[in-house]
């Protein structure tokens, strides 16, 4: 269900952005492909083309308030994580399944697109290894489970894995955020020992 939600919202923003730039949107069966297509179609466009775009779909109404891309590639032991894009979104869900799972209709959230790979099979990395601090001082201890992609040993491998994580804001508005820090705890081995260093990724809008 959440894969469909991701696909619908991301594809809607993609279509709006491409419409404004004169490019055609491409339908895609998976959110991973949507992320790659969005990066390809938007290449050479400034962030302004993607900001303040409002879309309405079967999930609700959403506004992308700000977006930044290509935050770099970071390594912690055998883990490599590329931060592809970070967006600030404000919206209202109308889908009852989503509302029941997240407990509210109106949302403000940070969406982080990543590409993850590892050279070790003995690795533990979960959503709980990710946390976020905004410039307004709000701390979010982990991405929302229902609205974020899965991340565990079974899905990690040497091939690049595209994952999107959603951090819902409780005490801040995305319009007040001008920066944030993504905290990535070191992955662990089967003995619970850290395999690398903790990472802090600074993001400015």
Structure summary, number of beta strands: 9
Percentage of helical residues? 10-25%
Q: Poorly predicted ranges (pLDDT <50, ≥5 residues)?
A: 14-49
Strand composition percent: 35-45%
User: Termini separation (Å)?
Assistant: 31 Å
The structural class is alpha+beta
Mean pLDDT over the residues: 81
Taking Cα atoms only, what radius of gyration do you get, to the nearest Å? 17 Å
SSE succession: HHEEEHEEEEEE
Using the 3D structure, state the CATH architecture. Answer: Sandwich
Number of separate domains: 1
Shape: globular
CATH topology: Immunoglobulin-like
Strand order of the largest sheet: 1-2-3-4-7
Produce the secondary structure layout.
Elements: H1 2-21, H2 31-41, E1 53-57, E2 60-76, E3 79-93, H3 96-102, E4 106-118, E5 130-134, E6 139-140, E7 161-168, E8 179-184, E9 199-204
Antiparallel strand pairs: 1-2, 2-3, 3-4, 4-7, 5-6, 5-8, 8-9
How would you describe this structure to a colleague?
It comes from Halobacillus kuroshimensis. Keywords: Signal. Residues 21-53 are annotated as: Disordered. The protein is α+β, with helices and mostly antiparallel strands and 205 residues long. The protein has one domain: Immunoglobulin-like (Sandwich), CATH 2.60.40. The protein has helices spanning 2-21, 31-41, 96-102, and strands at 53-57, 60-76, 79-93, 106-118, 130-134, 139-140, 161-168, 179-184, 199-204. The strands form 2 sheets. A 5-stranded antiparallel β-sheet has the order 1-2-3-4-7. β2 (60-76) and β3 form a beta hairpin. α1 (2-21) packs parallel to α2.
